[in-house]
Amino acid sequence: MVAMPKRCAWAKTDLSVAYHDNEWGVPVHDDRKLFEFLILEGAQAGLSWEIILNKREGYRAAFSDFDPAKVAKYNERRLEQLLQDPRIVRNRLKINSAVENAKAFMLIQKEFGSFDAYIWRFVDGRPIVHLLRKLQDFVATSPESDAMSKDLKQRGFKFVGSTICYAHMQATGMVNDHVINCFRRQPLIDAHRGANLTGRTTKGSR
């Protein structure tokens, strides 16, 4: 009998296991994917990540395959249509914020050349690896997510509190928060030998 690999304790359902094994903590440098996670993390506020994963394909269809240039052009009629779309979280503030964030996202691209170049500055361009032994070691924010949240808010972004920013960092591999006995942790470290290794206990589980 083949032994099941050790995983982070929050990965329990088929959907969350697939996300954990294939995406969570893998460094993302594609602007459209980074924008996708900004929309999804903002939508998650007050909800479970499992709900958002279940609606992910719906979000992809509703928000133009996460193309910020298209989302930034959504008008009032389009917003009203989205409020009636059961494939997404039908919250007016969250839907409006996606459009405003798309506009701010494009301004950052213009200033820095890419959103990737901007956002990875908050970890000096290298993933931070934490020594986490169990789910109870996780907390919700970090100095880096605090700084990211403050700067994004100053640039006009909405639904970018420090907790949401930290979850974004986890999702896009800016931090590696796989627990030490998780089978995904070491391969990600090996893939990024220049990572900023730290023993401090950080931030937020799914």
Strands across the major sheet, in which order? 2-1-3
How would you name the oligomeric state of the polypeptide chains in this document? Answer: single chain
What structural class should be given to the helix and strand makeup?
A: mainly alpha
Question: What helical percentage do the residues reach?
Answer: 40-55%
Mean pLDDT: 91
The general outline is globular
- Poorly predicted runs are 198-206
Which band does the percent of strand residues land in? under 5%
Q: Helix and strand succession?
A: HHHHHHHHEHHEHE
Q: How would a crystallographer describe the biggest sheet?
A: 3 strands, parallel
Distance N to C terminus: 30 Å
Structural summary, described in words:
The chain is an all-alpha fold and 206 residues long. It is built from eleven helices and three strands, in the order ααααααααβααβαβ. A three-stranded parallel β-sheet has the order 2-1-3. Helix 2 (31-44) runs antiparallel to helix 7 (92-112), helix 2 crosses helix 10 and helix 9 crosses helix 10. It is globular and about 50 Å long.
